[in-house]
Specification:
Blueprint: E1 4-7, H1 10-15, H2 47-65, E2 84-86, H3 89-104, H4 122-128, H5 137-140, E3 143-147, E4 155-158, E5 164-169, H6 170-183, H7 189-195, H8 206-226, E6 231-234
Parallel strand pairs: 3-5
Antiparallel strand pairs: 1-2, 1-6, 3-6, 4-5
Helix pairs in contact: 3-4, 3-8, 6-8, 7-8
């Protein structure tokens, strides 16, 4: 099962009017893919049909957050809203999450490659423990949806489908990724773009996968901020 990341309106996402980055294609940062239209008669609602549901969900989420948010929970759900996608893959994303967790616990040696059950890694469990204040909370705390605006906290709530999901902030994710780079790689912008050129080969070292995942996630978080749009994992 592939892991993609989508930035754009949620009406477009749930209508299926977007395209994943093909796994065999090199990652071209800064180039949005072309829309892939739904097959007629497939039973998937259109954007126009979905929009009232999305707006009602957003309003309910804003009410539930109340005064915990400083700016209105708002973004463009129009049909002409641009979208972007990338494919960090589970190897890239999982390696990046572990890279961040081990950066918070430098006394423990980082594994050379991504463990099969990386989400149960004991050091990651330390970073996600309730009593631990992670510097990279919007990355390591199992977030699936990053909202526009500045949220210092992550929280669990119902997504559009009524499923429980952890949510955070694209702005906070981007800032924390910058801080992770500053604390570990100290890579310049050109170097980071180079990391995202092509996915690493199978069984690549964890750090190489983490760098690729970082390049994809950092680029998409920046686009989510620039266009003030949600950012969502797709798998």
């Amino acid at each position: 099962m592939a892991l993609d990341v989508y930035v754009g309106s949620l009406t477009r996402y749930y209508a299926g009017e977007w395209k994943n980055v093909p796994p065999e294609a090199p990652r071209a940062l800064g180039r949005p893919p072309q829309p892939s239209r739904r097959s007629v008669g497939g039973g998937v609602p259109t954007q126009a049909e979905l929009r009232p549901t999305i707006l009602a969900w957003r309003a309910g989420l804003a009410r539930s957050l109340g005064n915990r948010i400083e700016t209105p929970l708002d973004w463009d759900e129009g049909e002409q809203t641009p979208y972007f996608s990338g494919r960090p893959g589970w190897d890239g994303f999982g390696s990046l999450v572990l890279w961040a967790a081990y950066a918070e616990h430098p006394a423990v040696r980082l594994p050379a490659s991504l463990p099969e059950e990386w989400d149960h890694d004991p050091v990651l469990m330390r970073s996600t423990a309730t009593a631990f204040r992670s510097r990279y909370s919007h990355l390591v705390r199992n977030v699936e949806l990053w909202l526009p605006g500045s949220l210092e906290f992550t929280f669990e709530g119902e997504d559009v489908d009524g499923r429980r999901a952890v949510m955070g902030s694209a702005e906070s994710l981007h800032r924390q990724l910058e801080e992770l780079n500053a604390a570990t790689w100290k890579a310049g912008a050109g170097t980071v773009v180079g990391w995202g050129g092509e996915p690493p080969l199978k069984d690549a070292p964890l750090e190489q996968n983490a760098r690729y995942g970082f390049a994809v996630m950092f680029d998409l978080a920046r686009r989510a901020i620039t266009h003030r749009l949600p950012m969502k994992l797709d798998y």
